[in-house]
Amino acid sequence: MKSVTDSFVSLGHWPSAGGFGFNTDILATNPINLSVVLGVLIYFGKGVLNDLLDNRKQRILSTIRNSEELRKGAIEQLEKARARLRKVETEANEYRVNGYSEIEREKENLINATCDSLERLENYKNETLHFEQQRAINQVRQRVFQQALQGALGTLNSCLNSELHFRTISTNIGILGAMEE
User: Fold this and answer.
1) Which of 16, 51, 73, 179 is the 20 to 30 Å CA partner of 27?
2) Does residue 152 sit within a domain?
3) What is the CA angle 122-123-129, rounded to 5?
4) Assign residue 25 a region: left if phi > 0, alpha if psi is -120 to 50, beta otherwise?
5) Are 7 and 29 in contact (CB under 8 A)?
6) 14: three-class secondary structure by DSSP
7) Is residue 174 part of a domain?
């Protein structure tokens, strides 16, 4: 401490030689120089520093306000996107349900159409079988009739002699003649 006070005293006391000199004692002159520089800086730089700090504060507040507005806008867009997503999911579920219902309807229609076709084919088959049975029965009847007729003609031809043949013809002619009158 004594050295600090000595430096103040030495400033007030000039050497008798009358010259101006520099005090090279760093420990003695540094606190004084620093206090002078800080005093000048604080006195003159306070306004500039306050302006710089105020500008910086205003920019930070402005950036915070802009960030808040952007955040609110992003939240609104997010809510809109979520609502749109819910709507699309609902529509997708409806399409899925409707699609499954449509598939089931088409499946039932296809099954019904197939059953109808099978029923028609069964009816056609039965009609064809009935027709073929009737045709076979008719063919058998015709053959039986032809065979019976051939057998009867053969029996008649073998049993009839000329005289019996002549009488049968005469009787038939008489019947025909009686019918004409």
Assistant:
1) 16
2) no
3) 90
4) beta
5) yes
6) coil
7) no
Residue 155 forms part of a structural domain: no
Q: How far is CA 132 from the centre of its chain?
A: 57
Question: Which of 74-78, 169-173, 177-181 holds the top average pLDDT?
Answer: 74-78
C-alpha to C-alpha distance for 181 and 63, rounded to whole angstroms: 138
- Structure tokens of 115? 């059953």
User: Strand, helix or coil at 56?
Assistant: helix
pTM listed for this prediction: 0.38
Q: What is the pLDDT of residue 26?
A: 67
* CA distances to 41, 53, 78, 146, 167 from 47, in Å: 10, 10, 45, 143, 167
How far from 27 is each of 31, 38, 40, 102, 133, CA to CA, in Å?
7, 17, 21, 98, 141
- Distance in angstroms (rounded) separating the CA atoms of residues 35 and 9: 17
With the C-alpha atoms ordered 113, 116, 120, 125, is the resulting torsion angle positive or negative?
positive
Predicted pLDDT at 105:
87
Q: Tens digits of per-residue pLDDT, 119-157? A: 999 999 999 999 999 999 999 999 998 888 888 878 777
Q: Compute and round to an integer the Cα radius of gyration of the chain.
A: 68
Q: Which domain holds residue 45?
A: 34-141
Q: Are 25 and 9 spatial neighbours (Cβ–Cβ below 8 Å)? A: no
Q: How many CA atoms are closer than 13 Å to the CA of 125, on its beta-carbon side?
A: 6
For the chain, give the mean pLDDT: 82
How many domains, the chain? 1
